[in-house]
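ARCHIVE CARD
Drawer: 12
Card no.: 0347
Subject: one protein chain, sequence and derived structure
Cross-reference: see card 0346
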Amino acid sequence: MNSVIVQAWLHDVAMANHHPNTPSEGVDEDGIENFDLDQTPVQRNTGLGVEAVALNTSTRSASSFPAVLATRPVFSHQHSADNSQPDDTSQRSSSPSKRFQKMASLRGLGVPVYFTQPAPGVMPADTMELREALSAVEAKEALLPAVLRSHPDFQGDERIRRQTWLSDDDTCSAADRDAVLQNHGRLRDIVDESRESADVQRSEAAWNSHVHSNLLKHVTRHTQHLKFEDITSARIIPAFRPRLSSGKQASSAASNTSGCGPTAALITSVHKMVDFALVMQEPWENQSINQTLYEPLRTRPAPIFIETMTVSGTKESANVQLGIWIAAWRQRMRPIMALAGAEEEKLLTLPVIQVMDSAWSVSFVVDEGTHICIIDDYIIGNTNSMLGIYQLQASMAALGAWVKDVFEPWFTKLLTRAVENRGNPRAAGSSAF
């Protein structure tokens, strides 16, 4: 991604921050942005993200957006205090939010979030190529290098079919063969760690450390535009926390109650983030291109998030965490869309990953305008078998290609339009930051 575009956006936002105005009275009552996260201990988050590394490191001369940006509460100076990251102690503290996480509560958002199953004809066209690639992986097509046909790890496995092997290549050099064997050995180590983690019933944090981080580091090591980032400490910027449909304020005390209503679930779930992400990096100026001020994500657009859990957890609580995070991402993106003159356009469909112990799956986040659908779709592999981890390796390659070929051009175009409109009072005035 051309870093000039993101730099121009963030720099102009930073310039606008020097002249903040007082927010209107209606802003605070529109959402849950005033919840005092410091009043409730924050449990370790469970989401994963991978970074798309910017290849262009050139800079751009300073310019500023119209004064209208300075009046937007999202970019006021108060965020520097409100969004400081909690210390390690508070991050490791237990949180009562697990008691309140219900998927039904996501329907109480101003823009509701629904988890659905795929149906014919409902998937947007912008996911077609990625879904085709993931379908091939799910069908175990062309996964295993031919030089491993005689390897003991693949003998007697009835799941391996003829189409599972890559084409034979008689010209494979000794160096290529060594590279294949070295890669296989590393994948073998990860599978061993995964099996041990399941046997000894490791915690979610331990799974992230022993298995998931190592897998993500391995599969992105040769991909220049991708890098995974552990974002378990990331918190949503108050201004981008999803709004409630009621528009009413809720006090921080609500997050300490033992109630189990939808509002309590939403309030406490703003503590819950994701574990890893794919993001675009470059050390730019103030503010954030994402919905969080967590430094590794502040200046790097994150197209893919990964939520992890263990069998001792619940799918529902993980879905609520993911739903809140995605709703906040949409809340962050809509003002950028508006400034770019794209208010009527839908956001790009995003893939998100969920991990249950060793099993990995991909869902698609579909912007329907009035609501968000997260459509459960593909099993993309696992870390408890050699065949499964080769599926994961191929799936991550497909997702990496999507970031480069689809997300990066879309996001670059969006920010380019926003930067170009910075001098257009009509366009800037239509942006509801």
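Annotation on reverse: The mean pLDDT is 75. The longest strand covers residues 372-382.
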